[in-house]
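BUG: 3D viewer hangs when loading the predicted structure for this chain

Environment: internal workstation, default settings.
Expected: structure renders.
Actual: progress bar stalls at 90%.

Input used:
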Amino acid sequence: MVLNVLNIIVLVTAVVSILAFTNNEISRKLLYIPYEVKNGNNYTRVFGHMFIHADYMHLGFNMFALYFLGGVFLDTGELRYVGVDDTLVDTYGSLKGQFHFLILYIFGGLFATLIPYLRHHNNPSYSSLGASGAVSSVVFAAIIWNPGMTIHLMFIPFPIPAYIFGPLYLAFEYFADRRGGGNIAHDAHIGGALFGIAYILIINIDKGKEFLSYFI
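Structure tokens produced before the viewer hung:
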């Protein structure tokens, strides 16, 4: 395994999550509880929740999505599947490219906590965990970076162009959030996705123009 930012994040998240499965104290300290953040100044939860998961399926799905759906196809004369961090490395160099990826992931995860905080900072019974918001940031950054790539989902038997998948996914998350119910933090997914989109537009506005060209 190549030691890069992406692999380090996957490894650290897996280790911390697995430890938390057998040690409830770890989960208790890292759960994202907006009420505790507001009234207990417990800011560790804003960051720490990204490294714990509900179970192995939750962990596996998030890390699978991060590692594979966070990839893009590069136009190098042949199809080459790489992580979005490698794409940024190709463009900005190793140090700066991986730094961009780290910003995408960490700040995407932090940004994903904003809507839940606004909604639940007075609700002591609300809590959430998992890297889904951060993963959404990476996935949507990849979609904006290379809207022509195709995305393969296990439960859909055909590939979906990224420029179609992105809007459809956001629409689904929006309506699922409006409907309510369930244990999925759809608002965190939306927050992370919006950060990923915004970050790519900030560092390379031409990628936004390329994305729009698919609809014009």
